[in-house]
Amino acid sequence: MPLLPLAGMRVLDVTTSIAGPFCAEILSGLGADVVKVERPDTGDDGRAWGPPFWAGESAMFLSVNAGKRSLAVTLRDERGLEVVLRLAEQADVFLQSLRPGLAERVGLGPEVLRARNPRLVYCSVGAYGRAGPLADEPGYDALMQAAGGLISMTGEPGTAGARVGSSLIDLGTGVWGALGIVAALLERERTGAGTVVDVSLYETALSAIGYHLVGFLADGTVPSPQGTVFPMVAPYQVFPTRDGDLMVAAGNDRLFRALCAAVGAPELASDPRFRTNPDRVRNRAELVSLVSERLL
Fold it and tell me: Which domains does the chain have, with CATH numbers?
């Protein structure tokens, strides 16, 4: 039997694109009954993202909206807004990613909804969060990859950087949002009251480069594009071989010894230049050259 800890919970999903929908999809996968609210004319922006399309539906949209029911209403119409308000009164979770300030302007802010339903867990998904000097600014995944520094450290050495090949920040924000909602529901069991959960793409971007931030605080190192190389571990990168590229990830001394044996060079493991990971990182160029010789 599947584990469905949120069975019986009702979620109202007023989000678009990827981060919010993915958050709601996670809740659906945990058993919640999710109703997705969309504009009657175009629906979720993600419906138009493609190709690829699958039977006329955007593959991107399908990937983050499984397990939901859909309701088409316009929030600018008094009748449509009343429908959403009535649903929110019966919901356990209200999830929104409207443009900054729009939820409050149309009457769907946390104060209004939680006054009508004190047990409601209200989650906002935004670019920079509800507080701070950039709170009113919108943003997409790629913009937050840039603002958070991820693009500047991704790509091949000597390049201007590259966007990560997946919508990593959107998806990560969805995970953080789901975690915050589940925590708020657990807290509600103790207090009887709902609360407000606020997640932002920018904070997710910073969490994705946490060890780089700590490294900068430690010694001022500014990360730069390194291709497939992990700058803190060696060897940890793609190597060309006679029959294709090979990703090597020797994350500790034991694995390095095993790698040396596998490539027929056990003597490298006892070489003073490569005995520990800091040694290997300092002498990365020599090590990569020696390993490459045995893989080609």
Answer: 10-208 (3.40.50.10540), 236-295 (3.30.1540.10)
